[in-house]
Structures are given as structure tokens and as C-alpha cells.
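Listing S7. Sequence submitted for prediction.
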Amino acid sequence: MKKFLKFVLISILILAAAVAGINIYMINFSRQYIYKDISTMPGKYVAIIPGAAVYKNSVSHVVRDRVEGAINIFKKGKTQKYLVSGDHGTIEYDEVNKIKNFMTQIYNVDENLIFLDHAGFSTYETMYRARDVFCVENAVIVSQPFHLARAVYIGRKLGLDIIGYEAPELVSYRKELTGWWNLRECMARVKAFFEVLFKAKPKYLGEKIPITGDASITWD
């Protein structure tokens, strides 16, 4: 029993060290590509807005902050197109059209600038499809600080010229919520590390829809 408990303890310590090591590596790798100040940020062609929770008549604060961040960098001349990527796996749940409608109706964004990726079920799939479906070569991904290290890491390991912009919080999130996000993100980074390592394929790919072309092809 003592040998078994010792084995379990050593295994837990090794696992914890591996998780910590991957997280430290990914955060350090991405740090130099993440910006808080728009004025110091290099221009890229596309602003990628990753999906998050939406509701029947509204979007979440997470989505709203990402949208506002993307619009702000566009207005500063840092980007030229938007790629909204999220979960539209069922008729009942549709992140991308909700976000597009929010952008056009609340912020008067020209819909012809908004491309929709209906199969961005994860950050990895968002970045993979940005490259292989939408022919994106360089982009700014706009998201919350806890998420950006993983997003930038995936994008750059997939060969994209990706930087991150930290979306300012219009209303501060609760500490319990951000604590949970950070804990969950620790494991998400480990998953992303192995997805990149083993060159995982997204659930869907499909025909190419160049981001330089007609955005309306992506609407439904």
C-alpha cells in the first residue's frame, strides 16, 4: 500500500509539473505578441473575434468587450476586415449571427466587412480554419487577457502572423468568475499544446472563402 501511495503521489507531482511547465512555456512564448495599447500595435489585415456565450436577446459581456475592442482597433486603422468565429452547431444556438447583428445594429459596422465562421467550436478550430478556409495570413485576435496566450500560441504555431489585443473590460468581471476562467484555461492550454503537437484536424473544413473576397458568402 505504501508503494502504491508513493507511486500515486509521484504521478500527481509529475502531472502537476507538466501542466505548470506547458502553461509557463505558452504564456512566455506569447507575451511578446500581445498588446494593450493600440498605438503601439502593428497593423494586420483581419481582426478575429472569437465567439463566447450569447443569449436570446443579447450577448455576454465577454462578447461585448471583444466586439468593442475589435471595432476600436479598426477605427484606429489597424485592421481592415472582421472574422467572427464561433459555435453555430445547431439552429437553436448561433453565436456568429448574434455577434454580427450586435455589431451592425448597435455599432453600425458595415456588414460587408464581417466574415462569419460558423464552425469555430474551439480556439484551435478558429485559428486552423482562419488559415485553411479563410486564407488569413495575418491577424489580430481580440480577447480577454486570460485567453490570449493560448490563441496567439496556436495561431503562430500554425504559421500565421498573429498578435493579440487585450479587450478592455467595460464592466469588471467578478473575481470568482475570473478565477474559474483562469483555472479552466490552465487545462485548455495543455489541450492546445497537444493539438498543435499532433496536428489535430478541426471537425469541419470545407471550400476556401478568401477573407479578401465577398463576406456575404459566409452569411446565412
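Caption to Listing S7: primary sequence and predicted C-alpha cells for the chain studied. The beta strands are 34-35, 46-50, 81-85, 114-117, 138-143, 161-166. Residues 52 and 63 are 6 Å apart (CA to CA).
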